[in-house]
Amino acid sequence: MDKNKAIDRINKLLALANNRAAAPGEKENALEMAAKIASKYGLKIVKGNSTSSTPIKNQFFDYEFYVKCFDKKFLDLLFRLLGADKWQFIGGNQVYVRFTNIEFNQEAFAKFYKKFVSVYYKSLKEAKAYRHMWGRNDTKRYCEEFFYNFKIGFYNSDKAFITCDYTLGKMFKDYSKRYIIKEVA
């Protein structure tokens, strides 16, 4: 290998080491190999003005997936909190959603969505059991209050409410940061 081929090889290895999708061990190995090749050919690896330091254009991530127990108001709330640019119902419980600079884990979202729906309907059933007369307006008010407390939990996780909807919002914030969304720089 001549010096020019060594430089090309080092650049490819550094690109792999800076790739967010690469596994941690793969990144370390790529850096190690690049350093070995550089020292063998008397080259220096300098962190400087590369294409990765220039601002990256917005990347759009589009997803289509199946949602069990489709409910527009539930999905609208959750996608807005996750930062989705737009979403729409396609048909047959298929949903389309778009994010800008955010990768979305559909399986993790589906897992939480199932839990969200079950907690909502369970708590609605319990609320109905406490009232003798329950009308459609009561269900609407309950839904609005549930969503309000959920959003309070999502945005202000340091408050000390002890309601299931508040706690669910707090859980959603933590769970979404860990498993559902990942910001892309």
User: Helices and strands, in N-to-C order?
Assistant: HHEHEEEHHHE
> What separation lies between the terminal Cα atoms?
35 Å
Percent of residues in β-strands: 5-15%
- What is the helix content? 55-70%
Number of domains: 2
Strand order of the largest sheet: 1-3-2
Helix count, DSSP H or I runs of 4 or more residues? 6
Biggest pleated-sheet summary:
3 strands, antiparallel
Number of strands: 5
Shape: elongated
User: What integer is the average pLDDT?
Assistant: 84
Which ranges are low-confidence, i.e. pLDDT below 50, for 5 or more consecutive residues? 48-56
* Rg (C-alpha, Å): 24 Å
Structural class: alpha+beta
Notes on the structure:
The protein has 185 residues and is of the alpha+beta class. The chain has two domains: 3-53, no CATH class; 60-183, no CATH class. The protein contains six helices and five strands, in the order H-H-E-H-E-E-E-H-H-H-E. The protein has a three-stranded antiparallel sheet with strand order 1-3-2, with helices on one face. A hairpin with a 2-residue loop joins strand 2 and strand 3 (94-100).
